[in-house]
Specification:
The chain is an alpha+beta fold. The protein has 18 helices and six strands. A hairpin with a 4-residue loop joins strand 2 and strand 3. Helix 8 crosses helix 9, helix 10 packs across helix 11 and helix 12 crosses helix 13.
């Protein structure tokens, strides 16, 4: 940093009551990393913008202070840190809080109409609540907001990026988690309740019967609606039941939805799809588990042709003896 710039910054800091050392350090960082050129007007414009932004961490603040590339990296790191430190498990482990204390703390920070009224009174609370709702609907969510803030081209790019990062897709998870993306995506879908419309009553009843034949330890390793991510389909695959202790997968297939070969011939067409394509899709799905999840037995149960308890017991005993 040349003496002219130093003298200018020192005079500006003294006049505006800013810390000289911190200002020198910030400007030197910008110069060293090519964020600004050695041009006093552009340096001062960036410096004033940095100081007028809120002290709290935002993407805009990170980009102003660290440049576009490093700023985005630091913002992603900050978001990941916040995600971890805001979990109940973290607060209980690190801060020694009980589950009830964490719930009470989270409630105290919540934004609800009731809490706004308690804090500010009826009329002021309702007014502030409406302002909050309007702001949340617009700021950071609407395309118009991004265009207004960043311009047409950059605004649309940021809007698409924000929506991508909100999504539960492998593209978003690879940005957020890197090599752990597939495992994190599977974890999300495994913890997400599936709509009952996708789970037949007959399937649930059969799996109840199966689990009644398992040991306590085996039941702990059994998963209904088991989720696996696979690149070949570019998404998730859901299996009716997987038991990792027994290395067993069971698929409960409906006659119509999977084309029971006892009912449909090889030339049948179901839902505008050739039945052989349905069978091939199920075979490909099976191979994913064999290739990637150490499953040794893939057992298909057809609706209306369920195995007896004796047949299931024989299957389970065979798996136990081969472990």
């Amino acid at each position: 940093m040349d003496s002219l710039l130093k003298n200018y910054l020192r005079h500006w800091c003294e006049t505006n009551n800013h810390d000289v050392h911190r200002t020198f350090k910030k400007v030197q960082f910008w110069l060293d990393n090519g964020i600004v050129s050695l041009d006093i007007p552009s340096i001062m414009a960036r410096l004033e913008k940095s100081l007028t932004l809120p002290a709290s961490a935002t993407l805009e603040k990170m980009i102003v202070d660290y440049g576009d590339d490093l700023g985005r990296i630091k913002w992603d790191e900050y978001c990941e840190q916040q995600r971890v430190t805001n979990t109940k498990e973290y607060k209980m482990r690190v801060h020694g809080m009980t589950s009830e204390e964490v719930d009470a703390y989270n409630l105290s920070r919540a934004c609800t109409e009731k809490l706004f009224i308690e804090r500010h009174g009826l009329e002021e609370g309702k007014r502030r609540w409406q302002e909050y709702c309007d702001r949340q609907r617009y700021a950071g969510n609407q395309l118009d907001y991004f265009i207004e803030k960043y311009g047409a081209i950059e605004g649309q790019r940021r809007y698409k990026h924000v929506n991508l990062m909100k999504s539960h897709t492998i593209e978003a998870y690879r940005i957020r988690y890197g090599e752990e993306a597939e495992a994190k995506l599977e974890e999300y879908y495994r913890n997400k309740p599936f709509s009952s419309q996708y789970i037949s009553a007959a399937s649930s009843a059969f799996l109840d019967r199966l689990e009644s034949l398992l040991t306590d330890n085996e039941r702990q390793h059994g998963y209904r609606e088991y989720v696996v991510y696979d690149d070949s389909v570019g998404g998730i695959l859901i299996y009716d039941y997987v038991n990792t202790a027994l290395q067993l997968c069971i698929e409960y297939n409906g006659v119509y939805w999977h084309g029971d070969p006892y009912v449909y011939g090889i030339d049948a067409v179901l839902r505008d799809t050739h039945v052989q394509d349905l069978w091939q899709k199920d075979v490909s799905k099976m191979r994913v588990l064999f290739d990637n999840r150490d499953i040794k037995q893939y057992y298909i149960v057809w609706e209306f042709r369920e195995p007896t308890n004796d047949a299931l017991q024989e299957l389970l005993d065979g798996l136990r003896n081969n472990r």
